[in-house]
Design goal:
glycosyltransferase; 51% helix; Nucleotide-diphossugar_trans; membrane; transmembrane helix; Cellulose synthase-like protein E6
């Protein structure tokens, strides 16, 4: 609401599918604070205009305003935050607050997060019924854990739509997804720097970036299924036509029937119209459908990020998020929306290939599992799998290994990552492939066999104080007995045993007798896995804090390693 844009042209909707009275209470408190905060923002042109972000970054009033005025607005924000936190901790809204606002009367003892009637309340500008239901030609959506970091983001996006030469071709403008809570070296590889700076920028030149579900400006008409035509012209006055004649109460009741979504039953909503349903990454498939209707998209990545959000800060959160992403993208690849089929003749081949970078994330787990298991077992047994190091046939393997790592390092450093951050990213590349992506494959297989259905799991972004402290110290977080940790423990221990066993065999038998040049590539591969896995060995055997790998996980991993070694030993 504090954007550098005429407020009468902005309509803000906040939705909570769970129907929480605490969410509504937070909205109500924010609406009261907004009456003081918005004039303060406009008067002094402050940045960022999210109060929580602003006060966490600001050292004081400095040259913006008088100390008294700054302290007054800061105290109002702190008091509001304290009231909301108190209500959340107690799990209920104070009775005196409920009596002051009619919206709280919508809740009763029978309402649950999964079973409640549509609840619609107008908190700001409720005196103008024409401001209640908007028919504006542009829709922006942002995730609940993100805030605006640039008050000119709306104007910047509209510049693309209003471009005289290319604007009529643009279906949506996508901003990158940036996080403000990640450490400098990004121990879990969640910064998305390379994706934001390299991959999405590359997609922009192929026909447009993916729709990533947040920080995006859409034309309303394309969400309603409109196909691109060369003579298309946007009616920028459409949003102010057909003024409503009903009262606020009548409009509110009509909005409740709209929120119930019963009008969608038996229609093309969720298929041909609106956001696609039935997929864990509904944003990607929605953007694909828009591209296949002839529209292009634009990637806008300003130096000052338009939006900032909260990224995963534990290993469990990271694995869960990438499992959902990889599972959803693979489900698109295996469905009728496969880009090569659905986009044939509608989008360029190179654009289709860009989409498949993400569609094939999950299947890459199978090749990775092979390379971190089979060569190591063969090393222990003394069986060479690669050409000898002196053979010219080793050149393709050396080329791929060197160029891949050199280029990924160049991409990371040029995108703003540190050298240590790149190394952490290589470790997480391995972890995600043997856990998140593997489970993405297995879940898709179960769905194809009819054993399960698509299940959307929201990625938690909240960590306790101890977890946050370990994250700041760049210590990896485990602490639970999840099956993903058993896989990680098994793979890392297997490679350690095979490396030590292979080296001991070389030392006993002799360098010449065991043909070291034939086993050297496997020694390098196994050694790389071991070196990147040092934090996992520490978590299993050295650490004593609550974030270490639990002993049952270590014990199970040792058991699986012993089973895997039986064929190699025999």
């Amino acid at each position: 609401m504090a954007y550098n844009y005429p407020p009468e042209k902005l309509s803000v909707y906040l939705s909570d599918d769970g129907g929480s009275i605490l969410t509504y209470y937070g909205m109500w408190e924010a609406s009261l604070f907004a009456k003081h905060w918005l004039p303060f923002c406009k008067r002094y042109n402050i940045e960022p205009r999210s109060p929580a972000a602003y006060f966490s970054q600001s050292d004081g009033h400095q040259e913006l305003c008088t100390p008294k005025e700054w302290s007054l607005i800061k105290d109002m924000f702190d008091e509001m935050t304290e009231r909301i936190d108190t209500a959340v901790m107690s799990g209920k809204v104070p009775e005196e607050i409920k009596a002051r606002q009619k919206g709280f009367h919508e809740w009763n003892q029978e309402i649950t997060s999964k079973n409640h009637q549509p609840i619609v309340q107008i908190l700001i500008d409720g005196k103008d019924q024409n401001a209640v239901i908007s028919n504006s030609p542009i829709i922006m959506n942002v995730d609940c854990d993100m805030y605006s970091n640039n008050n000119d983001a709306v104007r910047d996006a509209l510049c693309f739509f209003l471009d005289e030469e290319m604007g009529h071709k643009i279906g949506f403008v996508q901003y990158p997804q940036n996080y403000n809570n990640l450490s400098k070296n990004d121990i879990y590889g969640n910064s998305l720097q390379v994706i934001n700076e390299v991959e999405m920028g590359g997609m922009d030149s192929l026909g447009g970036p993916l729709y990533i579900g947040t920080g995006c400006f859409h034309r309303r008409e394309i969400l309603c299924g409109r196909k691109f035509t060369k003579d298309y012209q946007e009616d920028w006055n459409a949003g102010i036509k057909d003024k409503l004649q009903e009262s606020i109460d009548e409009t509110e009741e009509k909005a409740k029937s709209l929120a119930a979504c019963t009008y969608e039953h038996g229609t093309q909503w969720g298929d041909e119209i609106g956001v696609k349903y039935g997929c864990a990454v509904e944003d990607v498939i929605t953007g694909l459908a828009i591209h296949c209707r002839g529209w292009e998209s634009v990637y806008n990545n300003p130096k000052k990020p338009a939006f900032m959000g909260v990224g995963p800060t534990t290993l469990a959160q990271t694995i869960l998020q990438h499992k959902r992403w990889s599972e959803g993208n693979l489900s698109i690849f295996l469905s009728k929306y496969n880009v090569f089929l659905f986009g044939h003749g509608k989008t360029k081949l190179r654009h289709q290939m860009g989409y498949h970078i993400y569609g094939l994330w999950a299947p890459n787990s199978l090749a990775t599992l092979y390379y971190v298991i089979i060569p190591s077992l063969a090393l222990l047994k003394g069986t060479p799998l690669f050409p000898e190091i002196t053979s010219p046939w080793i050149a393709p393997f050396v080329y791929v290994f060197c160029v891949k790592n050199m280029y990924s390092l160049y991409e990371a450093l040029s995108s703003g990552d540190t050298l240590k951050g790149w190394w952490n990213g290589q470790r997480m590349w391995l972890v995600k492939r043997i856990t998140s992506y593997l489970f993405g494959v297995l879940d898709n297989l179960r769905k194809l066999l009819g054993l399960s259905k698509m299940n959307f799991v929201v990625s938690p972004k909240v960590s306790d104080e101890d977890e946050s402290k370990r994250y700041e110290q760049e210590i990896m977080e485990f602490g639970s007995s999840d099956p993903e940790y058993v896989i990680i423990g098994t793979i890392t221990l297997l490679n350690l045993v095979c490396l030590l066993g292979g080296l001991s065999k070389v030392m006993k038998v002799g360098w010449n007798n065991i043909h070291l040049d034939a086993l050297f590539p496997q020694l390098i591969l196994c050694g790389m896995v071991v070196i990147t896995s040092i934090p996992f060995y520490e978590a299993m055997f050295l650490r004593k804090d609550k974030g270490r790998i639990p002993f049952p996980v270590t014990l199970a991993s040792i058991g699986f390693v012993m089973l895997a070694l039986l064929p190699a030993i025999v």
